[in-house]
Amino acid sequence: MTTRTVDTTQELAAFLRTRRERLDPDEFGLPARRRSRRTPGLRREEVAELAGISIDYIVRLEQARGLRPSADVVEALASALRLAPDERAYLFDLARQRPRNGGRPATIAAPPLARLVADLSPLPAMLMNHRYDILAWNGEMARLLVDFATLPPAQRNAMWLCLKHPEVREFYADRERVIREGIAHLRAAWAAHPDDEALTDLIAEFTADREFARLWAERDVKVNGRGRKVMRHPEAGVLDLHYEVLTPLQDQDQRLVIYHAMAEDSRSALDRLFTE
Known about the structure:
alpha+beta, 434 Repressor (Amino-terminal Domain), Beta-Lactamase, 13% strand, elongated, Lambda_DNA-bd_dom_sf, XRE family transcriptional regulator
């Protein structure tokens, strides 16, 4: 990546192409005489027909000719392409049709949230912004992952740790899934914060990693509010953990992440880890 901010025209074009090409024509009940095709997915004229938009308009969008589709057109495209909710929001962001909260991205923890993170002990908890920068953490989270206080601020980033930290990168039993989900979140954040040069620089740094670059090019978009991670902790052994991501109404650029163990063996392992 060479630009310092999001080139929304080019990204909108690429996103529409990839979403169109992944669709299975058989699922749309197209006549058999129209199914002979050399390229994957739906044709442009088929998307145009489904969305009620001219084929010329679809062509110009996919060729990045600088169009800014209206909210109605974006909605029609999202429906025609059968976009998932996070993908739909991403498309609206790229078209600059979704209202924004405004303000600068959070770089420090809101004091009430920092206190809440500490008060959540013994549950491991941390506070992040949309870039995955870690703004606050409690002792249990530091014990579970890494002592964040010993890291330079630039390395206190969940994606950086997963990609580059020599210990943390080996924690996850299903590392590719964890990275894939993180990238899908970063792509959504990238479109929602097109002027955040720090985020764009971070993504440019990450794309030097071959694994990140491969998954980033797939253009998956998803914001996970909860999930599961299986960790191979060097001291506690295998941990089966679930997490919740909460967004405070008054600080919507900050995300509170809380881990908890569901199975008894993982709970016991965490207890031992935190009391040693």
